[in-house]
Amino acid sequence: MSSGTGITDAGGRPVAVTVTAGGPAPRDPAGPTPATPGEDPASAPRIGIRLTPPTGELLWSCTPEAARELAAELLRAAEETENAPAGHPVTVEAGRLRRGDVRDGDRAMTVESARTDGSTVHVTWKSGAGRSWTQAYAADAAITLKRRLPEGR
């Protein structure tokens, strides 16, 4: 991971992020001395995380389990952010639907896939309850979406 990730500090300035697998982040020479393996649970395998904002450098480390928990929380927050309703619905032609588009309406319906067959588009939807079904639309049919993922997703 690097500064091109879109991670910024509170002022909006880019922050370089480096993740080191299999070992702790480099320690501050003035900081505590690392324990010998077997002496301390903190000496278990670690994941190193270095954040380098313009104001200085932060060094963190965590266990692989904590790294998985952090990744799960980041994924949950990303999905929650992407699934938040937009300021206003957007209408697109059925032929322009993309995986991840969310239909506007009372119940959550997300596009799993969209396949064009001549002038017909076969859209597979997935409900919030996990059920899937396919509907056919004219390619130019107007579909109102609550949320649209960015291009390229």
Explain how this protein is built.
- The protein has 153 residues and is mainly beta.
- Helix content is 13%, strand content 34%.
- The protein is built from one helix and nine strands; from the N terminus they run βββαββββββ.
- The protein has a three-stranded antiparallel beta sheet with strand order 1-2-3. Strands 4-9-5 form a three-stranded antiparallel beta sheet, with no helix packed on it.
- The longest helix has 20 residues, at 64-83.
- The model is unreliable at 31-37 (pLDDT under 50).
Structural key phrases:
single chain, 153 residues, mainly beta, three-stranded antiparallel β-sheet, 13% helix
Mean pLDDT across all residues, rounded? Answer: 80
Largest sheet: 3 strands, antiparallel
Task: Please bin the fraction of helical residues.
Answer: 10-25%
Total strand count, please? Answer: 9
Helix/strand-derived category reads mainly beta
